[in-house]
Specification:
The complex is a heterotrimer of chains A (268), B (249) and C (309). Chain A is mainly α and 268 residues long. Chain A has one domain. Chain A contains 11 helices and 2 strands, in the order H-H-H-H-E-E-H-H-H-H-H-H-H. A two-stranded antiparallel sheet of chain A has the order 1-2. In chain A, a hairpin with a 2-residue loop joins strand 1 and strand 2. In chain A, helix 1 runs antiparallel to helix 8 and helix 1 crosses helix 10. The radius of gyration of chain A is 18 Å and the shape is globular. Chain B folds into 2 domains: 171 residues, Rossmann fold (3-Layer(aba) Sandwich), CATH 3.40.50.300; 47 residues, no CATH class. Helix content of chain B is 37%, strand content 24%. Chain B contains 10 helices and 10 strands. In chain B, strand 9 and strand 10 form a beta hairpin. In chain B, helix 4 packs across helix 5. Chain B starts with 5 loop residues before the first strand and ends in a 7-residue tail after the last helix. Chain C has 309 residues and is mainly alpha-helical. Helices cover 74% and strands 1% of the residues of chain C. Chain C contains 14 helices and 2 strands; from the N terminus they run H-H-H-H-H-E-H-H-H-H-E-H-H-H-H-H. The two termini of chain C are 19 Å apart. Classes of the chains: A mainly alpha (268), B alpha/beta (249), C mainly alpha (309). Chains in contact: A-C, B-C. At the B-C interface, helix 2, helix 3 and helix 5 of B face helix 7 and helix 8 of C.
Chain lengths: 268, 249, 309
């Protein structure tokens, strides 16, 4: 899921505060599909991804596009506004109660050698890897992917070579949103969620992206691993409520000493 | 022999693997006009950044008014009397023109009323008084150049670093700036300028330092430098310079 | 201007209890927004963690009062001083390490969250459940039977913050801040010690905000870490100046007068079931609209409108 955010930021340098909230919508969508159509979220995540892709493109074209050249403060505020709207309309529509998606798959556990592993988490992890690889291939092997990376590195250069920059941005934003939608669906059986979950998810993904490095796919992946390990360790040694402290402290340290992150390409 | 106002000694700076400036040495005397020229990418703007405190040198010294500038932040360098303009102009777009200059004059005149008076005086000297109360973002290119100049002047420097202040201007505008720079110099302000507009360089500079690939390849009076074969070779293919006598803009 | 103040002074006489409460909140949030305006609006350093200063101010005063019997009137300044100290730390770290824009926002959020988590886990401070203040109605303990006193205090705070901003605006400090917001590098080249002025702005802003913490504690009688250090409060603080006009004197006030009643109305409309998040949809939509159409905020827009008329 953090992969999506890196993509968006890398291309547009517009911070997507709404990231976490879009993920919550992804979760809810999976929930709705699961209860109405009885679809297994491990299947429906594709639908969620598609739906969020559309949402992402709409947000980008309709809103973000207009302020691409505006000062940073404005872009941050815009996304904050979108986040507020998304989060609270979810609140309105679905109510504040936590929800969870049931899936027959989620109930299984298998053992991998000495460990008992939750099948659900295993599947999520594997799919995440597959998606990351797919994204990598897309960005580095396809024409459109290359264009996206080129626009990220040099907005005006891309314009000069005749790339349809707004369309590229829209696609990038859409893909980012799609990743998030998929993530939401995949995680929905594991994580109980409510509309306010959006904020902590956004913060977590920012943590991951900053630590791992903006604009770097590998960084997002490594960052994700690091943060989850840190949080788990934190939960083991400290009381669970303090585990967030770990990732925030890590964030502060990284911000101060290496804002480009571990693999980041550009300094602020 | 009087000590020069500015002494640059064996200055070096590299970025990653790229050596931007190498063992650069030159001086600027009180009230002198010295030009720093060289093909694009020769390291001129880097030299400016090093002298004005925006970059730290890897090696070498910068001494201004007998003070070593090592470790000083840009605002401290400015307080000593060294001001610079930027190649890519950086006005404060949402502030009015007079406020733009006040940021400069407030340094030595903390009272806003006094700072405003002085700012308007500087603007008048540069012919911008009609625009004083308009937002700086709406100025034309030539006006913005003069605003850059006004702001730097507002800090009451004894040495002014001008970074390509004539680029993009037509003949009349260039003439105007040349006159303004001369007038400023007559008041005792030394000038170090980076310039591609050769006509302006030839008419203004008392001495020229030529850079290529970060190193000084020639120095001397304009006539001598123009005839120097090393200089000519460095500029071969650099059209702006080759076509300078005809254009000038 | 004087007319407006006179009106505000006279208001409690004509308002019923409900409207009075809304007015108190309006003024209080205007005060908080104005304090934020110093560093967020004029200096352009968007702090999204200002709630932390409210929290520190409030918790300090409340603890000092509960445990040591120190009058909140004094505790208020201790709390504000501590808030100022935190502001100095955040500012020092942020500015020394050159964090701008988004990165600075993240830093402030991180600090606020760290405070929240820490306080939630310290039992001496009430842990996750928070602190409560027993109602005594004793003025020396910053508690009043009559709501109208709270109104005047809130009004006083708002006028104080506005006065401070007005003072800053016309002096060199304020002029420098507006330029720092535009282009720090250019300021440095013109001899401005940007670090010093940003720090000053940050400390003044956090100190003032800290004062508000005490008011919050002794008006609402309870402090929960999630509420008082949390992002939602930070959002409430910054949204009013943003909608009303950052970097303007009257922006935060206008913003609060527009948004606070609006929030209250939507709270009413969307009803009982604890859906008080609903007004945030309005906030979000307004935020988007303002950024797209009125980037300078409502107040500058209105001022232009009236100039033409």
């Amino acid at each position: 899921m953090a992969v999506g955010l890196t993509l968006i930021f890398g291309v547009m340098r517009v911070v997507n505060f709404a990231h976490g909230d879009m993920m919550v919508w992804g979760m809810y969508l999976a929930f709705v599909l699961a209860t109405r159509a009885g679809t297994d979220p491990y299947v429906s995540f594709v639908v969620c991804a598609a739906a969020l892709f559309v949402l992402g493109v709409l947000v980008q074209r309709g809103l973000v596009d207009r302020i691409v050249d505006a000062p940073h403060e404005m872009q941050i505020l815009l996304m904050l506004g979108v986040a507020l709207v998304l989060e609270n309309s979810a609140l309105l529509v679905f109510g504040p109660e936590p929800a969870r998606v049931r899936s027959p798959v989620a109930a299984l556990t298998t053992d991998l050698g000495p460990l008992y592993v939750d099948v659900a988490r295993l599947v999520t992890f594997l799919v995440a890897i597959v998606l990351t690889l797919a994204l990598y291939l897309f960005l580095y092997r396809t024409e459109l992917g290359r264009l996206i990376r080129a626009s990220a590195d040099n907005h005006y250069g891309a314009l000069v070579i005749g790339a349809d920059v707004p369309r590229i941005y829209a696609v990038a934003f859409g893909i980012g949103a799609a990743c998030v939608g998929a993530a939401g669906a995949l995680v929905s059986p594991i994580l109980p969620f409510q509309p306010t979950t959006g904020l902590s998810l956004s913060v977590t993904s920012f943590n991951i992206v900053i630590i791992g490095g903006m604009g770097s796919l590998l960084g997002a992946f490594v960052g994700g691993l690091l943060v989850s390990v840190a949080e788990s360790l934190g939960a083991v040694f400290l009381t669970p409520s303090l585990k967030e402290l770990f990732s925030f402290s890590l964030l502060i340290i990284i911000l101060l000493f290496r804002p480009a992150g571990l693999f980041g390409k550009r300094a602020p | 022999m009087t000590t020069p106002l500015l002494t640059v000694q064996d200055l070096s700076k590299s970025f990653g693997g790229l050596q931007a400036v190498k063992d650069l040495s030159f001086t600027v005397g009180e009230g002198e006009i010295v030009a720093l020229i060289g093909p694009n990418g020769a390291g001129k703007t880097t030299a400016f950044a090093l002298v004005s405190g925006f970059l730290t040198p890897d090696a070498g010294r910068v001494v201004f008014r007998n003070r070593d500038l090592r470790g000083l932040k840009p605002h401290q360098v400015n307080a000593l009397g060294l001001a610079r303009t930027f190649q890519i102009m950086r006005p404060f777009p949402r502030l009015t023109v007079v406020r733009n200059v006040m940021i400069a004059t407030l340094g030595r005149h903390p009272d806003p009323a006094e700072a405003e008076r002085r700012a308007r005086a500087v603007l008048a000297e540069l012919g911008l008084e009609a625009r004083a109360d308009l937002p700086a973002g709406g100025l034309t290119l030539a006006e913005r150049k003069r605003l850059e100049l006004a702001r730097a002047l507002g800090t009451e420097p004894s040495l002014l670093l001008l970074d390509e202040v004539m680029s993009g201007l037509n003949e009349a505008e260039t003439e105007r700036i040349v006159e303004l720079v001369r007038a400023i110099n007559r008041r005792g302000v030394a000038i170090l300028l980076i310039e591609h507009v050769m006509r302006a360089v030839m008419s203004l500079a008392q001495r020229i330092v030529v850079l290529n690939y970060g190193e000084r390849i020639a120095e001397g009076r304009p006539g001598a430098v123009a005839a120097d074969p090393k200089v000519i070779e460095a500029y071969l293919g650099d059209e702006e310079v080759a076509g300078a006598p005809a254009r000038g803009g | 201007m004087a007319v407006a103040v006179a009106l505000l002074l006279a208001l409690p006489a004509v308002l019923n209890s409900y409207l009075l409460t809304i007015s108190i909140l309006t003024l209080f949030y205007a005060f908080l927004g104005q304090a934020w305006n110093i560093v967020g609006g004029y200096t352009g350093q968007l702090s999204a963690g200002h709630a932390a200063f409210v929290g520190i101010g409030g918790y300090t005063a409340a603890t000092l009062s509960n445990e040591y019997g120190l009058s909140p009137w004094l505790g208020m300044f201790v709390g504000a001083a501590l808030a100022g100290a935190l502001g100095a730390i955040i500012g020092y770290l942020g500015f020394r390490f050159g964090l701008r824009g988004f990165y600075f926002v993240l830093l402030t959020v991180a600090f606020a969250e760290v405070c929240r988590i820490l306080v939630s886990n310290i039992d001496a401070l009430g842990g996750a459940l928070g602190l409560y203040i027993t109602f005594t109605g004793n003025p020396r303990q910053f508690q009043f039977q009559d709501q109208r006193v709270y109104y005047y205090i809130a009004l006083g705070l708002m006028l104080l913050a506005t006065g401070v901003v007005a003072l800053i605006e016309r002096r060199r400090f304020g002029i420098y801040l507006t330029a720092i917001r535009e282009d720090e590098g250019a300021c440095e080249a013109l001899g401005v010690n940007t670090f010093r002025y940003k720090m000053l702005a940050m400390v003044v802003s956090s100190f003032l905000t800290g004062l508000g913490g005490t008011f919050y504690a002794f008006y609402l009688f309870s402090l929960q870490p999630g509420t008082v250090f949390g992002i939602p409060l930070s959002v409430e603080i910054i949204i009013r100046p943003i909608i009303g006009g950052t970097g303007t004197l009257l922006g935060p006030i206008l913003g609060s007068f527009i948004l606070t009643p609006l929030a209250e109305l939507s709270r009413q409309y969307f009803g009982q079931s604890g859906l008080h998040g609903a007004h945030l949809i309005v906030y979000g939509a307004l935020l988007v609209a303002v950024v797209l159409f009125l980037p300078q905020g409502a107040y500058p827009y209105l001022r232009r409108l009236f100039k033409r008329a």
